[in-house]
């Protein structure tokens, strides 16, 4: 699993805090890492955080071009970016290239009644999953829909972010990997 920890920061005299993009993804990633600590898993779980996503996916690009392990050992990668809402559903980027895995996520969502809809998207170079997919690693990018829409905005602060479906997204991911 991965998430990016950078955001726009200061632009002139204005601060862009990045609560949803992407402190929310980092927070969920850390909670998942805590959940999996000490658990017996069928596969090794790896949690990665990258910088330089906002300036062109440079951190993940560098990593995939200079890997510290064989990327083809990754069975499936989930990128968590902009996951602090969810009232209107969940989007899966690269869903059309990962049909088998996405079909399983949809079944889990339906059975557990987690998100009212799942929007399926094709591949896009809009977050760190992209470079992994470019290197033939099965990868998707999950982001939530609805709630505040302070994307790349000074109002993207923790006090404006509801985190309404974070537990449901964590539930979906845990159930997905338990049955992977």
Explained architecture:
It is a single chain. This protein has helices at residues 19-36, 58-65, 99-112, 129-134, 166-178, and strands at 2-4, 9-11, 14-16, 48-50, 77-80, 89-93, 118-120, 139-145. Strand 6, helix 3 (99-112) and strand 7 form a beta-alpha-beta unit. The mean pLDDT is 95. The chain starts with a strand and ends with a helix. The protein has 180 residues and is an alpha/beta fold. Helix 3 crosses helix 5.
- Report mean pLDDT, rounded to a whole number: 95
Low-confidence stretches: none
Number of helices: 5
Rg from alpha-carbon coordinates? 16 Å
User: What is the makeup of the main sheet?
Assistant: 4 strands, mixed
Q: Span between N and C termini?
A: 14 Å
Strand tally: 8
Strand order of the largest sheet: 5-8-6-7
Q: How much of the polypeptide forms β-strand, as a percent range?
A: 15-25%
Relative helix content? 25-40%
What form results from the Cα inertia axes? globular
Q: Helix- and strand-based class?
A: alpha/beta
Order of helices and strands: EEEHEHEEHEHEH
Task: Summarize the entry for a quick read.
The protein is built from 5 helices and 8 strands. The chain is an alpha/beta fold and 180 residues long. A 4-stranded mixed β-sheet has the order 5-8-6-7. The chain has a two-stranded parallel sheet with strand order 1-4. A two-stranded antiparallel sheet has the order 2-3.
